What does this fold into?
Amino acid sequence: MVKVVVCGAAGGIGQPLSLLLKQSDLISHLALYDIVNAIGVAADLSHINTASKVTGHVGAGALAEALQGAHTVVIPAGVPRRPGMTRDDLFKVNASIVRDLAQACAEHCPKAFILVISNPVNSTVPIVCEVLKKANVFDPRRVFGVTTLDVVRSSRFVHEVKPQFEPHEIANRITVVGGHSGATIVPILSKINQQPHNQSISFTPEEIKTLTHRIQFGGDEVVKAKDGAGSATLSMAYAGARFTLSLLEASVRGKRGVVESTFVHLPGNPGSEWNQRFTGLDYFAQDVELGPDGVAKVLALPELSTEEQALVKIAINELKGNVTKGVKFITEPQPGAPPAAKL
Ligand SMILES: NC(=O)C1=CN([C@@H]2O[C@H](COP(=O)(O)OP(=O)(O)OC[C@H]3O[C@@H](n4cnc5c(N)ncnc54)[C@H](O)[C@@H]3O)[C@@H](O)[C@H]2O)C=CC1
Ligand SMILES: O=C([O-])CC(=O)C(=O)O
It folds into this structure.
């Protein structure tokens, strides 16, 4: 029975994510932190007749008490995109929000699992890792970029092309590698097996092209449809809850064989050497087996088709810049950049 903290809990993702987490019997205390409105959201959720206690914490002065004793911290804090923006455009605002939350985690719950939802994930995850390294509390097994929405979208979109395959049955069988923005999102569609029949799903080259593009730019579909009112929140809450609960199943309940695609720091993580050599990167999303301490094993990339190899090459090139930008934000802060808030 564990304490889970949601930072950014009053937001578009934070509220439905907290609602989904309130349903889990693995969580004994759900602490909701935000700079606004978290007390009201907590009061509302606390009337639901499931086991966990819910508390609300508002403002930087209340962050320490929210994080104290946390087993897992989920971070959907920060601004979302509007039409015409890239995820990288969010860096300006979200980088310092994530940096300050990571600094507070380093001080108040250095052993907690940290799940980063705030965009741009390709840069915010390196920011968290660098803050923890600086504080001498970094454990690469415990920091995750949440890319589950790419897997969720993949299984839904594949079902729409191949209705004979149920989305929930293929949900855990599609690996998405790379990162979490446009061309860095690479779904491995050449290797989907549907259990229990072990029937493989095959596509025409045109289907692969259309599906890959839709999965890579699924976020833009929602941003456009919401027309200025933000980006994916409900599907993201579903995906964020799925990842959080998978991690709790593996780490708290001791369930074996739990695998999710996620963006992690490769050096120091068990099994990551092959992917590190292949990509030449320190951060990459791929299937990861989860265990009692977080990452139990980074799974080697599957055999890629020629087209997938080309896509991964493009992803690697873009990721290099995204990762470096995040790392440098902590290791080489610009003069005039806002200082870390005292939390
Ligand atoms: N990883 C992924 O797959 C996805 C990531 N996202 C990202 O998630 C983030 C949040 O999106 P939404 O919930 O739609 O935004 P939102 O604006 O609805 O909610 C964000 C919340 O963060 C809070 N916040 C701002 N600064 C904070 C701080 N310093 N500490 C704690 N809370 C703070 C705000 O008060 C607000 O309640 C965005 O960066 C978005 O791009 C969105 C969808 C998918
Ligand atoms: O598109 C966005 O900005 C939000 C996001 O990451 C997604 O929906 O995948």
Q: What stands out?
A: The first strand starts at residue 2 and ends at 7. The chain is about 40% helix and 20% strand. Residues 80-81, 87, 119, 149, 219, 222-223, 231-232 surround oxaloacetate ion (ligand 2) (CB under 6 Å).
